[in-house]
Write a structure and sequence with these properties.
Strand content: 25-35%
Structural class: alpha+beta
Strand order of the largest sheet: 1-2-3
Order of helices and strands: EEEH
Largest sheet: 3 strands, antiparallel
Number of helices: 1
Number of strands: 3
Helix content: 25-40%
Shape: elongated
Length: 79
């Protein structure tokens, strides 16, 4: 698939539409909920931008996870 091609799915749920964007290369997906008054082009743009941000965030190295707080010998937390 060409770069920046995504699968887009539209599901009507009452007065809203759930839009899911999926990256076929990574399998990452995101969803948005939009009013039925929004155009398909607007909904697609928002969902794809959200997916691009997620792909960018996932591709960055993980930050060092926070270490659990140190405890004293009596079960309290040292600050």
């Amino acid at each position: 698939m060409a770069q920046n091609e995504f699968y887009i799915e539209f599901i009507t749920i009452g007065p809203q539409i759930k839009v899911t964007a999926i990256d076929p290369e990574t399998g990452l997906e995101v969803s948005i909920i939009a009013p039925t008054s929004a155009t398909q082009q607007e909904m697609t743009r928002v969902a794809v931008e959200k997916l691009k941000r997620r792909i960018e965030r996932e591709s960055q190295p993980q930050k060092e996870q926070k270490k659990p707080p140190k405890e004293d010998d009596k079960g309290g937390i040292l600050v």
